[in-house]
Design a protein that fits this description.
375 residues, seven-stranded mixed beta sheet, 33% helix
Length: 375
């Protein structure tokens, strides 16, 4: 995956990035999201699964994290390493697609329904770009199996998370997909580590049942050290629907508050300067939102015998994100425990869109969740 022809000249800065990937396979780890994704594709190609990835900057990756297609720094010649895996038994293709979401996503859905042996992925440049293709989501992706018996593994990669940028580029409208989720018609995940990305893609390609996969993909986590993984995390295990808080394993009897969250906000909580695992709070990640792992969550929460409060935390406003769709599931998992919400209030716009205001609001919701003073 890191080899190029002898006469191919890689950009000097990019060569350093790729060399770090080689070192990340060592004992110190550091496998990032784009690297784990490429490793997942390579293993699937060797197992005979064809892969087609298209999107609005998918060859490079919108956030310069993928580098699936390399360009010769001298003459501009293109080279795609994943097309040259020696042991591959299937084909790989990655293409940049135009900003014509309805047509592009409609084509990929049709392609995926006729290629049951392939993993077909469509990636939005930003999560909100799927808005223009909402009719394809509503009429085909989420209801095609019920209406016509059409099945596919079409995977939507939708960048999502609040970094203080514009309102539209903050949100992939997770709430819309959750409202459309029923009758086991899809899988919706919000993974937080590179290893989870690796196992998520392999599960999607190899699972006996064919269902669309909706992925809230990260932005700032793509290179976050805390979100990177070791090679052992990839070679062992599988996708984890709920990640318990390993930092509190030695004093679980002292935990009175469990914070439940998905995605990037987990790291905002964990890295807050006033948070310590010894303060009676555990932070649990919900990595799969549909089908909701109610029984798994119930077992996880039962591991805290003195639990008094569950706090659902999200970056999105209360009328968006996962809260309104999964609240009843949370109550089912722990019916006798007090449940409360920590996040932005109801809003018409997805986010503030002004960095100073964003930082103030983000700090407020994190402090609220951790039980710290918000004044």
């Amino acid at each position: 995956m890191l080899a190029v022809p002898e006469d191919f000249t890689i950009n000097e800065k990019l060569a350093q990035v790729l060399e770090r990937r080689r070192n990340a396979l060592g004992p110190d780890g550091g496998i990032e999201w784009g690297h784990a994704e490429a490793l997942a594709y390579a293993t699937l190609l060797e197992e005979g699964v064809a892969i087609r990835l298209t999107g609005q900057d998918s060859e490079r990756g919108t956030f310069s994290h993928r580098h699936a297609v390399l360009h010769d720094a001298v003459d501009g010649t293109e080279y795609t390493p994943l097309e040259h895996i020696k042991a591959a038994r299937a084909g790989f293709e990655v293409r940049n697609a135009p900003l014509t979401e309805t047509g592009c996503l409609g084509f990929e859905y049709g392609y995926a329904t006729t290629r049951h042996d392939a993993l077909v992925l469509w990636e939005a440049q930003f999560g909100d770009f799927v808005n223009v293709a909402q009719v394809i989501v509503d009429q085909f992706i989420m209801s095609g199996r019920t209406k016509w018996g059409d099945e596919c593994r079409l995977t939507l990669l939708l960048p999502h998370a609040y970094e203080g940028s514009g309102p539209e580029h903050s949100s992939a409208r997770l709430e819309r997909f959750l409202k459309l989720a029923a009758e086991d018609n899809c899988t919706i995940v919000y993974p937080t580590t590179a290893a989870q990305c690796f196992h998520m893609l392999r599960r999607q390609a190899l699972a006996p049942e064919r269902r669309p996969l909706i992925v809230m993909t990260p932005k700032s986590l793509l290179r976050l050290k805390d979100a990177s993984s070791n090679i052992e995390d990839l070679t062992h295990g599988s996708f984890i629907k709920i990640i318990d808080d390993a930092a509190v394993s030695d004093w679980r009897d002292d935990i009175s508050r469990v914070i439940l969250c998905s995605g990037k906000v987990y790291y905002d909580l964990k890295r807050h300067p006033e948070y310590t695992p010894e303060d009676g709070t555990a932070i649990v990640r919900l990595e799969q939102l549909y089908p909701f792992p109610t029984e798994t969550l119930a077992r996880t929460l039962a591991g805290y015998p003195n639990l008094e409060e569950i706090v659902w935390v999200q970056e999105e406003p209360a009328n968006m994100g996962a809260w309104r769709s999964i609240r009843h599931r949370l109550e089912m998992a722990a019916p006798s425990i007090r449940l409360r919400y920590a996040g932005r209030p109801w809003r018409a716009s997805p986010s503030e869109g002004y960095l100073p205001d964003h930082k103030i609001e983000q700090e407020r919701l994190v402090r609220d969740a951790l039980g710290l003073s918000t004044h």
